[in-house]
Design goal:
324 residues; alpha+beta; Arc Repressor Mutant, subunit A; BirA Bifunctional Protein, domain 2; SH3 type barrels; 3 domains; seven-stranded mixed sheet; five-stranded antiparallel sheet; 9 helices; elongated; binds biotinyl-5-AMP
């Protein structure tokens, strides 16, 4: 199925907007006119638009915004990120795929993109809602030479890259909620999942997962009050995923290289410029330690959240869920 469809699409691309006759298609592909018509119908269901004219054949008018690997790589202005890019229509989780590629020796910068995830992952075993056609579900493989305790900083580096990219592309004022959420009007539009594999004290690799709700029109009831998408916040206008992914990979590489060369201090002010809860009272719910309440006053050089307690002490929070 897929293979014949790919061939059909190639023929239409070669025709450059001109008509291709049904006869030419069935001859080139060695299948019946009825089979061609079935494939065209399926492509239409996927968002391809064809004009059909008797005797002339079919003309491809528009391709859907699906971030196929070739489309993402075309004209991509990076040295490493996206050098190897894999696209899947459906996958359990792009994180699972990137872990497998990493273990098989894939190079730094390898990217996995899916149109749909059926087992999208959040932190601590939570799930990430990733329906087809509506978001950017992507994982990036990084192999930095980093001490283990610095790895959480990469979540903050990625947050800055995503906020700056989406602000540039859409003007939408995303805000960062430490550590891994990006919000619009108080609702979550993006989540970041940073997983690492290490041997003794050395980082083997980092699987950086990014989920962005792009054109989702609605959410299941349990997310309806807490989630939003770029299109919901723009009166139904959704940016195209493919160019957004390209700009994001370029920005992410720029900030990642800056971070590797100059350290977190080069990123910190850019993170603070978009931070949501500085100066606000918050509750930090931690795994295996007490829940703390205080005023979020900033982050330290490690990327840990600084919490000013009632008694004037400052607590460093390394990992938590924050309620505001
Ligand atoms: C995260 O976890 O926010 C990390 C999400 C990372 C997703 C990307 S997609 C590509 C890559 N492949 C994967 O499998 N994952 C990564 P956490 O902070 O634990 O938040 C999870 C919580 O966010 C859930 O328990 C829900 O309450 C909420 N949630 C789930 N899906 C959402 C969505 N699409 N939009 C907004 N909120 C969502």
């Amino acid at each position: 199925g897929t293979n014949v469809k790919e061939q059909i699409l190639r023929l239409f691309k070669e025709a450059n907007g001109q008509f291709v006759s049904g006869e030419a298609l069935s001859e080139a592909l060695g299948c019946s006119r009825t089979a061609i018509w079935k494939h065209i119908s399926e492509l239409r269901a996927q968002g391809y638009q064809f004009e059909a004219v008797r005797r002339s054949g079919y003309r491809l008018l528009a391709t859907p915004d699906i971030p196929y690997a070739e489309q993402v790589k075309a004209g991509l202005n990076t040295q490493r990120l996206g050098c190897e890019t894999h696209f899947f229509e459906t996958v359990e989780s792009t994180q699972t795929e990137i872990h497998a590629l990493a273990r098989a020796g894939a190079p730094e910068g390898t990217v996995v993109i899916a149109d749909e995830q059926v087992k999208g992952k959040g932190r601590l075993g939570r799930s990430w809602h990733s329906p087809p056609g509506s978001g950017i579900w992507m994982s990036v493989l990084l192999r930095p030479k980093l001490e283990l305790q610095r790895c959480p900083q990469l979540t903050l580096v990625a947050a800055v890259a995503i906020v700056e990219t989406i602000r540039e592309q859409t003007g939408l004022p995303l805000m960062i909620k430490w550590p891994n959420d990006l919000l619009l009007n108080g609702k979550k539009v993006c989540g970041i999942l940073t997983e690492l594999r290490a041997e003794s004290d050395c980082v083997d690799y980092i699987a950086l997962g990014i989920g962005i709700n792009v054109s989702s029109a609605s959410f299941p009831s349990e997310l309806a009050d807490i989630a939003t998408s770029l299109s919901i916040e723009q009166q139904g206008q959704a940016p195209l995923r493919t160019p957004l992914i390209k700009r994001l990979l370029e920005k992410l590489e720029e900030l990642y290289f800056l971070y590797v060369e100059q350290g977190f201090s080069a990123i910190k002010p850019r993170w603070e410029a978009h931070a949501l809860m500085l100066g606000k009272p918050i509750t930090a719910r931690r795994v295996n330690s007490a829940t703390l309440q205080g005023i979020a006053i900033g982050i330290d050089e490690q990327g840990a959240l600084l919490l000013r307690m009632e008694d004037g002490r400052t607590e460093h929070i390394y990992s938590a869920d924050i309620d505001m």
